[in-house]
UniProtKB/TrEMBL annotation:
Keyword Membrane carried by entry: yes
Domain of life of the native organism: Bacteria
Top-level taxonomy: Bacteria, Pseudomonadati, Pseudomonadota, Gammaproteobacteria, Lysobacterales
Protein name, entry field: Uncharacterized protein
Keywords of this entry: Membrane, Transmembrane, Transmembrane helix
Residues spanning the membrane: 31-51, 57-78
């Protein structure tokens, strides 16, 4: 395998992190906490800007949009956490360890 891209490295980090742990929706949010802090900050600033500009409809639209992003991710995390017990069993952990050290 050639050089891994950022997404591939992140996926390996996820596998290694949850190797001996249960994977839950909350645990996946915690694993990706930096992204959700960013979403919270940008979302909060967007809503605050719309409120400051006296555009409550746009403030609600931004709040709804950012909330839907989080809900979409929660759905993906739920599917991932449900599949994790099977994925953990079929992964070649020696290969995961080898790739994660690159």
């Amino acid at each position: 395998m050639g050089k891994m891209n950022r997404t591939q490295k992140r996926q390996l980090d996820l596998y290694v992190h949850f190797r001996d742990r249960d994977m839950s929706v909350f645990a996946l949010f915690r694993f990706s906490w930096r992204l959700y802090v960013f979403i919270l900050v940008v979302g909060g600033l967007s809503v605050a800007a719309m409120i400051h500009l006296r555009s409550p409809l746009f403030a609600w639209a931004f709040a709804l949009g950012y909330s839907l992003i989080v809900l979409r991710d929660a759905g993906g995390f739920l599917r991932t956490s449900r599949a994790w017990p099977m994925v953990r069993e079929v992964l070649d952990w020696s290969k995961v360890d080898e790739l994660s050290k690159k």
